[in-house]
Amino acid sequence: MKGQATEAIVLRCSEFRESSLVVQLFTREFGRVAGLARGARRLKQYRAGALDQLCVSRIVLRRRSSRGLALIDEARLLQPFEPLTLPYRAALAGFLVARLLLDFVREGLPQADVFRAAVDTLATIRSGGNWELRAHRFVWELIVYSGYGPRLDRCARCNRPLPRSGRLRFCPLAGGLLCPSCPPLSRVAASLSAGTAKLLGHLTDVTTTTWQSLRVQERLNRELWRVEAAVVRALAEQPVHVMTLLAPPPARQRNRVATTA
Ligand SMILES: [Zn+2]
Question: What pTM does this model have?
């Protein structure tokens, strides 16, 4: 059986038996693949961190017809990811990328748009660019490309136009924003300002790059993380803890932490 070369993001890696590794990969060509790297912990073709979490590597795979693990013949590091060299929250954003890909991408289904978005997000995190804005965009790219684009132009329940100021609610179960008269369908709903709703318009539109010039105030940034955590929680059917850690605490609470430290 001939090996197939592909680019892949390492989502998770665990030790197996004495010297092998079981690796969850998100590949450009084959979607998610679980692979076995036999003897990886002692063989030189796997060294230099090519199977470390969140690295982008060139992998040679042999996929068997049965639903078992693919065999990883070679792994060559293309882009390292070193969380210990990054600011804490930037590293968390990297782990969020892995967590969301594990929850959302399916085995054997290629998702080139999501792959590109994930690689770009990791590159922005590594380079110290505006990783937080990139991470927000990644969350929405993943949601939209997975077929759950939210309704933002009108109320997702009554279809009436939304007010341009004041508070709104985002209800994942209803599939988008709600006007002030419509109650949410579940408790997993997030309150947000009209300003944050406007940001969502840019972040969720995968046909444009207007999101790149957004400037997100801290209060709106916090609201974005809350809305995204609510949507992911509803779609993944479980809370994603790292998203709670990424939402910065309100300023008052932070001061209190600072004075008691
Ligand atoms: Zn309504």
Answer: 0.91
What is the per-residue pLDDT across 55-114, written as a single tens digit (0 to 9) for each? 999 999 998 766 789 999 999 999 999 999 999 999 999 999 999 999 999 888 899 999
CA–CA dist 218, 223 (Å, integer): 9
Give me the domain span that covers residue 39: 4-80
Q: In this structure, what token pair is assigned to residue 27?
A: 């590949």
Task: Note whether residue 54 is domain-resident.
Answer: yes
Q: Is residue 61 part of a domain?
A: yes
Q: Report CA(80)–ligand 1 centroid distance (Å).
A: 47
Same domain, 47 and 146: no
Q: Rounded to the nearest whole angstrom, what is the distance from the C-alpha of residue 190 to the centroid of ligand 1?
A: 15
From ligand 1's centre to the CA of 168, what distance in Å? 10
Do 205 and 119 share a structural domain? yes
**Taking CA 66 as the corner, what is the angle to CA 64 and CA 72, rounded to the nearest 5 degrees?**
30
- Rounded to the nearest whole angstrom, what is the distance from the C-alpha of residue 227 to the centroid of ligand 1? 18
